[in-house]
Amino acid sequence: MKKVLLIVCCCLVQYSSISQSKLTGKIIDTLTKQPIAGASIFLSHTSIGTVSDERGEFLIQHIPQGKFEIIVSSLNYQPYITTIQPAQESAILSIQMSPSSNILKEVIVESYDKDGWTKWGDYFKANFIGTSSIAANCTLINHHAVRFKFINKANTVRAFAHEKLIFENRALGYNIKYLLSKFEFDISAKTFKFLGYPLFEKMVPKNSAEQKKWESARLSTYKGSLMHFMRSLFSNQLTEEGFEVRVMKKVTDEEKNRVRELYKRMEKTSKSNGGNSKEKGELNLNKDSLEYFVKVMKLSSDDDKVILDKLIPRDNLIFPVDSSVEPNAVFFEFSDYLHITYLHKKEPYEYTKFLLKKPDKDYISSDITLPFQKGVPIYKNGNYSYGENIFVYGYWAWSEKLSTILPIDYKPDENNYQ
User: Fold this and answer.
1) Which of 95, 90, 58 lies closest to 77 in space, CA to CA?
2) Which pTM does this prediction carry?
3) Are 246 and 338 in contact (CB under 8 A)?
4) Are 364 and 349 within 8 A, CB to CB?
5) Is 413 exposed, middle or buried (0-12, 13-18, 19+ CB in 10 A)?
6) Least confident of 57-61, 211-215, 258-262, 321-325
7) Which of 81, 243, 271, 415 is 20 to 30 A off residue 308, Cα-Cα?
8) Element (H, E) at 167
9) Contact status, residue 307 vs residue 248, Cβ threshold 8 Å
10) In this predicted structure, which of 102-111, 337-346, 406-415 has the lowest mean pLDDT?
11) Residue 73: pLDDT above 80?
12) Mean pLDDT over all residues of the chain?
């Protein structure tokens, strides 16, 4: 069976819809102090944005209260990215942008693979846009803007862009402008990570039938997604929303051997005591441990994970956060891995094809871990801070791509679509 790629999900946007405000500011050139007209200003992962006028000034209204990343970009200038705290929302932003160095650009571009899209374009599309039926209808309009560099020593492909990437997602009804910050694909490990800042613009449907089609596709994409899980986790609605969470452990060959030896000792001791071993406790074989031992013993040489049967309650995963540091957030923390099953969606054909397995109508499932062993604050809308500390495997590693990203202001009200 083909291993599923690893994805690093990165985002930091949070707000509450209880009340709204406006955001104003002025953008100037760092060197000349002259205003910059026509700059793009937007809240990352939302459909909220505007452009600066001839005086370099801008106004964004209906800004939900909270913390978010604001992105400013303009041709021939380095992107400006900052995080706005709730108390700063009423302040007027003074933004200074530094011109990009054309000389430096030429040096950097020269070091890229000149025919990089021919070599690595399929890698980029498969791992960044995706391979689902949704991805088939998501097109990168300006693929010429993507530059690639192959790092031979690390066997890694990196992608960069000096302008926003423009995507047309006709499956979900969004135009997406994406400021790519990082894309790395490790060929040997079959892992990848990306970081960027999307701005969503709703397409105008041809008719009501197309609008309903988009609404249905958005809802279907949302159900069982990482955003859906995080929102359910925050609101303590895991069971109601169809999620089951279990402990998953990665098992090395050394651990397999250790378990086999202990299991043999347990059986030997049990037989010598007529099946009633007092030494069983010395081997720490309580009910959970015994289940783990039995599952490890059944692993094949190619299998390396054990999923325990017991469901993990939400209170074992979520902890309070100091409101002065992360207002309106809770702390998501756990050890080892979590195995998450969504009971309202079966594995799609494209996913089973990717896994090189026969379609058997299993429920979609994903594994998640915190590689740096540090928890992350999560928010009501499903977003989270310190995204590079969350790795996902399984279905989410396959499905959570640019083509299936929804704006964080998406609301899955089945009777009143956004």
Assistant:
1) 95
2) 0.82
3) yes
4) no
5) exposed
6) 321-325
7) 271
8) strand 165-169
9) yes
10) 102-111
11) yes
12) 83
> Residue 20 CA to chain centroid, in angstroms?
26
Q: Please give the Cα distance from 269 to 272 (Å, whole number).
A: 5
Phi/psi of residue 53, each to 5°? -85, -170
Sign of CA dihedral 379, 383, 386, 387: positive
Residues 157-170 pLDDT 10s:
999 888 899 999 99
Predicted pLDDT at 274: 58
Q: Which two tokens stand for residue 417?
A: 């679509």
Strand partners, 340: 245, 366
Distance, in Å, from the CA atom of 64 to the CA atom of 23, rounded to the nearest integer, reads 10
Q: How many residues does the chain have?
A: 418
Q: What Rg do the C-alpha atoms of the chain give, in angstroms?
A: 25
* DSSP structural state of residue 159: E
- The residue to which tokens 């899955």 are assigned: 412
Token couple for 321: 């956060």
Quote the tokens at residue 231. 């929102």
Token pair of 2 as six digits:
């083909």
Residue 228 — pLDDT band, cuts 50, 70, 90? very high
